[in-house]
Amino acid sequence: MTAMDTAADDTVGDASAGAREQRLSDGRRDRSWRTWPPALPPAARPYLAPLALYGVTKLVGLAVFASLLEYAGDYKGKNPRFGGGAHWWDVLATWDGWWYLQVAEHGYSPSLVRLDSDGLFTVQQNSVAFFPLYPALIRMVSESTGLGLYGSGILVSVVSSFVAAAGVFAVVRLVAGARAGTIAAGLWAVAPGAGVEWAVYSESLFVAIAAWACYAVMTGRWVTAGLLAFTAGLNRPTSAVLIGAVGLAALVTLARPATRREHGVRGPVYAMIVAPLGLLSYIAWVGYRTGEATAYFTLQREGWAHFFDYGAYTLDVLRNLAVGKGDYHFAFSTPDLLSLQLVLALPFLIALMLRKRAPLVLVAYTLATIITVLGTQQMFGNTMRYLLPAFPLLLAPAAALGRLRLPSLVVFFSTAALASGWYAHYVIFELGVP
Known about the structure:
Blueprint (H helix, E strand, L loop, with lengths): L2 H32 L13 H25 L23 H11 L26 H13 L3 H28 L1 H13 L12 H16 L3 H11 L6 H17 L1 H7 L2 H9 L2 H14 L4 H9 L3 E2 L3 H11 L10 H23 L4 H15 L1 E2 L5 H4 L8 H7 L4 H25 L4
Antiparallel strand pairs: 1-2
Helix pairs in contact: 2-5, 2-6, 2-19, 3-4, 4-5, 5-6, 5-7, 6-18, 6-19, 7-8, 7-9, 8-9, 8-11, 9-11, 9-16
GO molecular function, one term: GPI mannosyltransferase activity
Subcellular location: Endoplasmic reticulum membrane
Pathway: Glycolipid biosynthesis; glycosylphosphatidylinositol-anchor biosynthesis
């Protein structure tokens, strides 16, 4: 074979290889167009079912809520701050939502203004009672997208609710499996008080942070857990229960030689130190700006009549409801009766959660949440909403429902979604004060 023949063969070979590469490239382009939108990453695929269940269930409940509002029409005659508005969706930004939008628009003007009153409220209400993370996100989304503050508030809540549902799924999946996790995400959508998940309220954001903080603890990601607990401290005062649960789990991890060797020391210590700083910083800032170190607690007690009374108010409400009376502060018959049923179910739900051998962080977080809610004077009808963050209570019911076949689950969630438009939405916003 001559050199010329060899060169010719090489040329033919290069051309053939080039043609093959071109065909492969064209095939990849064809497949990319045929599979548009791109397939989900493998790690994200397990979350598709729980998020779809959560979203569909919430949409059905919201549609029922809107229908009830339009049928009754009462919201049209109410003050836009207190459950009213020109359109049904305006109701979703009333009560606490009004305060959050005020903070997002105007910021804070911390002060303690004493009222000439000997009644329940002796201090003028002030926006610093509402923590800054949620309104700050509203303002940031509004300025970056051009949406109004209302639309931004709803957007932040809805996106946060899906992140929260994903967190509920992730936590329950670790304990009881993926099927139970999917059902738990659906149950959180129809839980009593779930109407605020897609409203201008901070519950969805808080549960998103809390669920993933618990997941981080359960998977040994201590730096993440500490940072999430820190962030939660900028969102709600009830973040104290999450901070305590993370700190307790870290302390127990350090106290046991086996887990200390597995997790090390620096991670748990970091979580314990960082977790409370967000909450403490905001409360200290309020005290500094008002000139009174305990200003935040004074405002809660004398401006909103919210304070820890070791369960005296809850006991008074239970006694009154047992004999059919309403001789207590903030009496709203329908929300109070629904909250009463939830309170009566708590011992059973707690026992089932413990029987499932839930991790320490979940048990501590849930029990601390329940003690805080029942031990505080506040509107009893809102117990449904205040217990919404106690998502580990869904662990055992989700595992039990997971044994049902698909047709039975479809019937259950269809019925619950329809009913939630009344008990989880309308009751809170129109028959009580959310």
